[in-house]
Amino acid sequence: MGFISILSIFVMACFVGYYVVWSVTPALHTPLMAVTNAISSVIIVGALIASSAAVGGSEISKWLGLLAVVLASINIFGGFAVTRRMLAMYKKKDKKPVTAAAK
Amino acid sequence: MEHAVAATPAWAELLYLVAGVLFILSLRGLSSPESSQRGNQYGMVGMAIAVVTTLIVHPVGLPLIIAAIAIGGSIGWFIAQKIKMTAMPELVAGFHSLVGLAAVLVGASAFLNPDAFGIVDGVTGLIHPVSRIELGLGVAIGAITFSGSIIAFLKLSGRMSGSPILLPGRHVINLGLLAGIIGLIAYFVTDQAEWIFWTVMVLAFIIGFLLIVPIGGADMPVVISMLNSYSGWAAAAMGFTLQNTAMIITGALVGSSGAILSYIMCKAMNRSFISVIAGGFGAESDAGGAKAGGVAKAYKAGSAEDAAFIMKNAESVIIIPGYGMAVSQAQHALREMGDLLRKEGVSVKYAIHPVAGRMPGHMNVLLAEANVPYDEVFELEDINGEFAQADVAFVIGANDVTNPAAKTDKTSPIYGMPVLDVEKAKTVLFIKRSMGGVGYAGVDNEVFYMDNTMMLLADAKKMVENIVKALAH
């Protein structure tokens, strides 16, 4: 892929991002931050390539990659899990409000 | 074949594209709470596709990788289960710092072993000039994200004072550093010297630290959104280096998401992004307008029983939560109060200012945690017209976002900020720890001294619990 075609994907994705994010309801802005956090850890792809660098690569480079894999994994699992936990709390009025928690 | 990354098989490219599309759908799901869980699942599937594709295409030492993912994954999973909802802002800041650091590590690794990333020019044996720019930018943005998020984390978790710390001449220093980073990256294109790469990294770490240190607690919603955005741009820059569609799409999504959130937050405070980043808001030197202190003005104080009596006899109550509710963890007691009032036939609604709390949507999450249905929670524009008909405005832990000076007093530092019109309600009940402190903007609030205001001076949670007791009688 040439630089220009990559740039095109990037610019288009910025526009997609712009419209998608404006459609997010303000009540879900905190989960939005948590989930964007999780998906920006797609940088793990770079980390995996770095740690796979077996041939001719320096050892340091490989270990830096592995460390990055650990960090990105914290984010991926932590981000998606905490988003799920938050989203599970958003409930509609339909059922009777929980009365169990009296005092 | 001088460009090894271009040799990624077509099916793998296609799968990266699928992952990117799934990430778009995952944000799309957040347009409503009903579709949000599905959106989150799209995100997980997208991530799994991206990881597995990479593992298949690149020859990896699987045991080590699996160990690394298992270690990181279980730490992340554990944190996600244990974290308190009130600690969400510092958790998000902490997660941002990890993305930043991961970007720096990947950048450093690519610089040390460019062959593995396929960014070596076959003729010169050096890194492609374009890739050098991408690497430099990626590492710089990653480093700023890392050190900035660490400071934000320390401030949000209370390990570091939330008030702005001002260095003399900080604007000159910051601009100098920024110019230095850009200049060095430009020079890096002509000369692939190691010292340039590492200097860029170090300068970026320093500027991230210096940028966030002078920013006060009330501006944290902007900061945290901005860092969110940076973590996206860092991922995008690395995506350019690796020519990876999934990373580029994600980076663009996250980058624009954070940028839009920063914009929304700035608008909700009527401040320019530049002035937030310049920092210092809420510092002693900054507070113009009606400063508290000096002449003690008269106010009415009331007890929990008074408040319970007033609300019991009201027809409609609007509750305005703020950061103070989060600090004292009053959301559960508050929901109980709401339930009791509803039993008495009182209509109860919640009004959320966009910058209430320490991050976008902070109050909504806490109320959801306390089982408040989300259709009883309203945004500023949707509810502001209702205060005039409301019997009671119940302010808990909020201050600046209710200050009418923002509408009338041109000398006030918060002039022009959209505020909740609580003073229009028949009665205002205002929970505040003491009359001493002023809000983060350092301005006094005339609502305290109005005839129809009753100040409830106590810790927010204790006060609400006492009101609940009084209501239950």
UniProtKB/TrEMBL annotation, chain A:
It is found in: Cell inner membrane. Residues 7-92 form the NAD(P) transhydrogenase alpha subunit C-terminal domain. It is a multi-pass membrane protein. One of its GO terms (cellular component) is plasma membrane. It catalyses: NAD(+) + NADPH + H(+)(in) = NADH + NADP(+) + H(+)(out). Keywords: Cell inner membrane, Cell membrane, Membrane, NAD, NADP, Translocase, Transmembrane, Transmembrane helix. GO terms for molecular function: NADP binding; proton-translocating NAD(P)+ transhydrogenase activity. Its EC number is 7.1.1.1. It comes from the Bacteria. The transhydrogenation between NADH and NADP is coupled to respiration and ATP hydrolysis and functions as a proton pump across the membrane. This is proton-translocating NAD(P)(+) transhydrogenase. The lineage of its organism: Bacteria, Pseudomonadati, Pseudomonadota, Alphaproteobacteria, Sphingomonadales.
TrEMBL record, chain B:
The chain crosses the membrane at residues 6-27, 39-56, 92-113, 133-154, 166-189, 195-215, 246-266. It holds the Pfam family PNTB. Its EC number is 7.1.1.1. It catalyses: NAD(+) + NADPH + H(+)(in) = NADH + NADP(+) + H(+)(out). Keywords: Cell inner membrane, Cell membrane, Membrane, NAD, NADP, Translocase, Transmembrane, Transmembrane helix. It is an enzyme of class 7 (translocase). One of its GO terms (molecular function) is proton-translocating NAD(P)+ transhydrogenase activity. InterPro entries: DHS-like_NAD/FAD-binding_dom, NADH_DH_b, PNTB-like. Coiled coil: none annotated. It is found in: Cell inner membrane. Its main location: membrane. It is a multi-pass membrane protein. It comes from the Bacteria. Residues 13-469 form the NADP transhydrogenase beta-like domain. One of its GO terms (cellular component) is plasma membrane. Complex of an alpha and a beta chain; in Rhodospirillum, the alpha chain seems to be made of two subunits. Belongs to the PNT beta subunit family. The transhydrogenation between NADH and NADP is coupled to respiration and ATP hydrolysis and functions as a proton pump across the membrane. This is NAD(P) transhydrogenase subunit beta.
